[in-house]
Write a structure and sequence with these properties.
The complex is a heterodimer of chains A (377) and B (265). Chain A has 377 residues and is α+β, with helices and mostly antiparallel strands. Chain A has 9 helices and 16 strands. Chain B has a 7-stranded mixed sheet, sandwiched between helices. The chains are: A alpha+beta (377), B alpha/beta (265).
Chain lengths: 377, 265
C-alpha cells in the first residue's frame, strides 16, 4: 500500500487548471466563459483573449466551423451532449491542434439551454493514424476498381453473322467493386466461342482477385478442348486445390457458329435464356450442378447439356442481380425476365440487353448486374 | 418508389389547410424543425421530409448524376408537391434548402405561395466582388472534417449516440437518424452544396420571400443575407437576435414569430 501522505493536496482548482485535458465552459451561443490552463498551454491562446471575447467555434478551422454549425451544434441542442467530435483548433501561432471534444449542454428546469461544458483531448497521433487508415482504405478501393476494370475490358469476339453484347452495371451504392464477371473468347478451332458469366462471393479487392484467377483458369482450361462439363470439373479441382473461389456460381457455354450448337454447363448459376425467332423465350434448365468447390471435387460429376439453335437465336447469360428484387421471389423475377425478353426477341443483341437492364434492373437493388448476349444471324 | 417514400415524407396538422413544406439543410434531417412545426400545425398542413441520403430517406435512391447539382434536390421537392397535390405552398428552407426552394419556386411558381429562407446563401465561396465567406480550401477542409468524424462514418454509430443518458428532447427513434447520413452521400452533398452558385437564380423568383438572417452566422454571413434580399424581386429581410446558423434550434420562438408575422402580412 502506498500512502498519499506527503504529497501536496490535489485541490479541485488545481485539478481543473492542470488536468491532462482542456476544459472550456461556454454560453449556449459558444461564447467562452471559462477555460483552464491546459487549454491555454496547448493552444497558446490566453484566457484574457478568450473569455467573454471569442466563441468556441471561432477557434476552429474554417471547414471545422461549418461542421460545427451543421453537425455539432444541432446534435448538442437535440441530444444534450455530443461525444468524440474531431476538430482542429487553430493555435495562437496559426498551427492546428487535432483534438477530440466531448460536450454537455446544461439546461434550466424549463429545458432552456444555459451553458455548455467541453473537454478537449489532444488527438494528434490518433488523427495521424486515422488519416493513414483512411488513405489505405481509399487506396484499396482504387486498386480494386482498377483491377476489376482491367479484368472486364478487352474486345469481344466478332464475326460475320455473330453479335456479342455485354452490359455490366456495378451496384449503385458503395465504392467497392462487386464479384460479377463475364468473358467471351475464341476457342482454337476458330469457329467456336466460349462464353462465361460468373458471380464470385464477396466484394472488394479479394473478389476482384478471385475473379481474375477464375477468369484466367477458365480461359486456359477452355483452350484444351475439355468442353463445358469437364471444364467445370477441372475448375472445381483448381478451386479446391488452391483455395480460390469457393461458392462461386458460373455458367460456361461454347457456341459453334457453323454448327449453331450450344453446349453449356451451369454451376449453381441462373439458367441461360434462349430466344428463338418465333418461339417464346425459355430457360435452359439442363446441365446443372452445384456452385464451385462446395463438395470434394469428383471428376465427371459436372453435367452439361447441348441444344441446337435456329438462325436468329440469342443466348443470354446473366447474373442474379437482373432478376432479384428485395420484396419478391426469384420466380417472379424470372417470369418478368421472360416477359420482357419476349417483347424484344427480334431486336439486336445490343437493343435486347439495353432494354433488359432498363426494364428489369431494380434501382433499389444493391447487387451488380452483368448480362452477356450472343446472337446468331 | 414514390417521392413520398423516397424522401420519408411525414405529415402533421390539418390536411385541408394551407400546406407548409419544411426542408432541412446539410448535416441533419427533418427533426431540425422539431421546435418549429408544432407552432404552425393548427392552421397548416405540415409536410416534413428528408433529402435523399439523410435521416430516414431511401439512400438507395441516391444517384450521383441526378444530385450533382441542387436542381436534383429541387426536383425532389417538386415531385413531393405533385404527389401530394400541394398548391399555395409555404416553403420553409433552412441553409442549403433555402436555395433548393428558390430553384423549385423558379421552376414552378404556381405551386408556391410564400418562401421562407432561413440562413440562405446562393454561393459560399468568395468570388470577384462577392464575399461568400469561404475559400475553396475551406471547403476541402470541411470534407476532411467529415472524413475524420465518426458521425455516419461508422455503421456502428447508433449505439454510441444512443448511449447518452440525458437526451431531454429526443426519443430513441431520433438518435438513430439525426445527423446520420450515408458518408459517401453526405460528402457528395457537402461538395454540391458548398460549391454551388445560384446567384443567377434569385431574380427568377416571383414568390414573396422572407430572408431570416442570424447574427454571427459563420455559414451565411449578414452581407450574404442582404445580397439575397436585394436580388429577390419580392423579398423582405428580418434580422434575428439569434446567433449561429440554426435559429430553428437555438431560437425557435423568435424564428416562429418572424414567420408568423410574414405570413400574416
Amino acid at each position: 500500500m502506498t500512502s498519499a501522505e506527503g504529497l501536496p493536496e490535489d485541490t479541485a482548482e488545481d485539478l481543473f487548471e492542470n488536468a491532462p485535458c482542456g476544459y472550456l465552459s461556454t454560453l449556449p451561443d459558444g461564447t467562452i466563459v471559462r477555460v483552464n490552463r491546459t487549454f491555454e498551454t496547448w493552444t497558446g491562446l490566453l484566457r484574457e483573449e478568450l473569455v467573454g471575447v471569442r466563441r468556441f467555434q471561432d477557434l476552429l478551422s474554417p471547414g471545422g466551423r461549418i461542421y460545427h454549425e451543421t453537425h455539432y451544434a444541432p446534435l448538442l441542442r437535440m441530444q444534450g451532449s455530443v461525444r468524440e467530435i474531431a476538430v482542429e483548433i487553430v493555435r495562437a501561432d496559426g498551427t492546428r491542434l487535432s483534438a477530440l471534444i466531448n460536450s454537455v449542454l446544461e439546461s434550466d428546469e424549463q429545458g432552456r439551454p444555459q451553458r455548455v461544458r467541453t473537454v478537449v483531448f489532444d488527438a494528434t497521433d490518433r488523427r495521424r493514424y486515422e488519416d493513414e487508415l483512411l488513405r489505405a482504405r481509399r487506396e484499396e478501393q482504387e486498386t480494386a476498381q482498377l483491377l476489376s476494370r482491367s479484368l472486364l475490358s478487352g474486345s469481344l469476339p466478332a464475326a460475320p453473322g455473330l453479335e456479342v453484347e455485354v452490359v455490366y452495371r456495378p451496384a449503385v451504392s458503395g465504392l467497392e467493386v462487386g464479384g460479377d464477371w463475364y468473358d467471351a473468347f475464341w476457342l482454337d478451332d476458330g469457329d467456336t466461342i466460349g462464353l462465361v458469366v460468373g458471380d464470385v462471393v464477396g466484394r472488394g479487392i479479394a473478389a476482384a482477385a478471385t475473379m481474375g484467377q477464375l477468369r484466367s483458369a477458365v480461359r486456359a482450361l477452355a483452350s484444351t478442348g475439355l468442353g463445358p462439363g469437364r471444364l467445370l470439373d477441372a475448375l472445381d479441382a483448381f478451386a479446391e486445390r488452391h483455395g480460390v473461389g469457393t461458392m462461386t456460381t458460373l455458367i460456361y457455354a461454347e457456341l459453334g457458329l457453323g454448327s449453331r450448337r450450344l453446349r453449356y454447363a451451369c454451376a449453381g448459376h441462373p439458367p441461360p435464356l434462349i430466344l428463338g425467332p418465333g418461339d417464346d423465350p425459355s430457360f435452359a434448365w439442363e446441365g446443372r450442378s452445384t456452385p464451385l468447390d462446395v463438395a470434394p471435387a469428383s471428376p465427371g460429376a459436372r453435367r452439361e447439356a447441348a441444344l441446337a439453335l435456329a438462325p436468329g437465336s440469342t443466348v443470354l447469360l446473366y447474373t442474379d442481380g437482373l432478376i432479384e428484387r428485395r420484396s419478391e421471389s426469384l420466380t417472379d423475377g424470372m417470369d418478368r425476365l421472360l416477359a420482357v425478353a419476349a417483347t424484344h426477341r427480334d431486336d439486336t443483341a445490343a437493343r435486347l440487353t439495353a432494354a433488359l437492364v432498363r426494364t428489369l434492373h431494380d434501382p433499389e437493388h444493391v447487387d451488380d448486374v452483368c448480362l452477356l448476349a450472343a446472337r446468331l444471324r | 418508389m414514390t417521392a413520398v417514400q423516397r424522401n420519408n415524407v411525414v405529415e402533421h396538422g390539418r390536411p385541408d389547410a394551407r400546406p407548409m413544406l419544411l426542408a432541412h439543410g446539410f448535416g441533419c434531417d427533418q427533426n431540425m424543425w422539431r421546435f418549429v412545426w408544432p407552432e404552425f400545425a393548427e392552421d397548416h398542413r405540415i409536410v416534413l421530409f428528408d433529402h435523399v441520403g439523410a435521416g430516414g430517406s431511401d439512400a438507395s435512391a441516391f444517384d450521383r448524376d441526378r444530385y450533382s447539382t441542387l436542381q436534383g434536390y429541387a426536383d425532389d421537392v417538386l415531385e413531393i408537391c405533385r404527389e401530394l397535390d400541394l398548391t399555395d405552398v409555404v416553403f420553409v428552407g433552412h441553409s442549403v434548402s433555402a436555395m433548393i426552394g428558390v430553384l423549385a419556386a423558379a421552376a414552378e411558381p404556381e405551386r408556391f405561395g410564400r418562401l421562407v429562407l432561413v440562413g440562405p446563401s446562393p454561393r459560399y465561396i468568395d468570388d470577384e466582388d462577392y464575399a461568400g465567406g469561404f475559400t475553396r480550401e475551406d471547403i476541402e477542409g470541411l470534407l476532411e472534417s467529415m472524413d475524420s468524424n465518426y458521425l455516419g462514418w461508422s455503421n456502428a454509430m447508433a449505439p454510441v449516440i444512443m448511449g447518452n443518458g440525458d437526451r431531454p428532447e429526443l426519443g430513441d427513434e431520433l438518435t438513430n437518424s439525426f445527423c446520420r447520413a450515408d458518408p459517401e452521400i453526405a460528402r457528395h452533398f457537402a461538395r454540391v452544396t458548398f460549391t454551388s452558385d445560384n446567384r443567377a437564380d434569385l431574380p427568377r423568383v416571383r414568390t414573396p420571400s422572407l430572408v431570416l438572417q442570424c447574427a454571427q452566422d459563420a455559414i451565411a454571413p449578414e452581407v450574404v443575407g442582404e445580397y439575397v434580399d436585394r436580388q429577390l424581386p419580392d423579398s423582405r429581410l428580418v434580422r434575428l437576435a439569434a446567433t449561429g446558423h440554426c435559429p430553428n434550434l437555438s431560437a425557435p420562438e423568435e424564428t416562429v414569430a418572424a414567420i408568423e408575422a410574414f405570413l400574416a402580412a
